[in-house]
Design brief:
Blueprint lengths: L1 E5 L2 H8 L3 E6 L7 E8 L2 E8 L3 E6 L4 E7 L7 E2 L2 E2 L4 E6 L3 E5 L3 E9 H12 L10 E5 L2 H23 L4 H17 L10 H18 L9 H8 L3 H11 L4 H18 L7 H7 L5 H12 L3 H6 L2
Antiparallel strand pairs: 1-3, 2-5, 3-4, 4-11, 5-10, 6-9, 6-11, 7-8, 7-10, 9-12
Length: about 300
């Protein structure tokens, strides 16, 4: 069991433990987070609170599946390039996580091993695990099911935390684990349409390739026009794809990515490293404007970050 308050994005991701994730801060202010995590045999229960808008990318476990939702519906939530509507569940294999969350956001989720999910699925539906779970999908369900699941998930977190703390009968913990897993599964829709998946994957692939180019180490970081030229796409198409997949323009995202990269480098800088060297490496040539932009995003000057390394 883990209940933890955090005040640094990298420390927050490390605290999640065992998952290869990286968070980028997208909104202005000082980050704070809260993690409530209970590890049970072959299943993890999670509640995560974050104060800033973030992009969360990486993977949890190639043999695990995740099921997640917002504790409160929000219009500014994107999962794997799909805008998440009200009363929806995000689900899929844990080998590719990509989530855009708004400020003051709470996520509830379970991460379950295939070795537990597959036999339970077969017992419930008398057929193998659905093939669409190999993708990352947003599935709409009913308001009643979502509200019931939200309430039950929080209750189960508290109950399993108390039982784990006092080393209660493992069979009782197993029963609670199976109960919450069944509720998540039964909240999924009976029919899942995957016809739009190829289109979504192409659009997201374009955005991912652009992001990769944006972060390619170079003496002269690429501009958006450079990115478009290398990808053979128009600025209009790139802009449309970013808005559709991430809810942000490529220009703003490029600037935010670079500021996050500067912050990460400042936090791990060698003793002789200077702010000017690190900033210029990421394409910030005017130090006064850079310092202003940095403070606006992170709530502190770059010199403060450097001193805290």
């Amino acid at each position: 069991m883990q209940v933890l308050d955090t005040h640094d994005i990298d420390a927050h991701t490390l605290a999640l433990g065992g998952w290869a994730l990286q968070y980028e801060q997208l909104s202005s202010g000082q980050f704070s987070g809260h993690i409530h995590k209970v590890d049970l045999p072959e299943l993890t229960l999670l509640r995560e609170d974050t104060s800033m808008a973030l992009r969360q990318r990486g993977h949890m476990n190639d043999s695990a599946y995740g099921f997640a939702m917002a504790l409160r519906d929000t219009p500014d939530l994107f999962f794997n390039g799909q805008r998440v509507p009200a009363h929806a569940i995000m689900c899929g294999k844990g080998d590719d996580v990509d989530l855009i969350t708004p400020p003051h956001f709470t996520l509830i989720a379970i991460v379950v091993q295939r070795s537990l999910l597959n036999p339970l699925w077969e017992r419930m539906y008398h057929k193998p695990l659905a093939s669409w779970l190999e993708k990352q999908l947003v599935l709409s369900t009913t308001e009643a099911k979502v509200n019931n699941l939200r309430e039950l998930h929080l209750t189960m977190l508290d109950q399993t935390s108390a039982m784990a703390q006092w080393q209660t009968d493992p069979q009782a913990l197993k029963q609670l684990r199976d109960d919450i897993l069944m509720e998540w599964i039964e909240a999924l829709p009976a029919q899942v349409d995957t016809s739009e998946v190829p289109t979504l994957e192409r659009r997201k692939k374009l955005v991912d390739r652009a992001c990769e180019l944006m972060l390619t180490p170079s003496d002269e970081p690429l501009s958006i026009l450079d990115v478009c030229s290398r990808m053979g796409t128009s600025r209009r198409k790139l802009n449309y794809s970013f808005q559709d997949v991430l809810g942000i323009t490529p220009v703003k995202y490029l600037r935010t990515l670079r500021l996050n990269s500067v912050r990460r480098e400042l936090r791990h800088a060698a003793p002789h490293a200077t702010i000017q060297d690190i900033a210029s490496h990421w394409g910030f040539w005017h130090l006064s404007q850079f310092a202003q932009d940095y403070k606006q995003l992170f709530g502190e000057l770059p010199s403060t970050t450097l001193r805290q390394r």
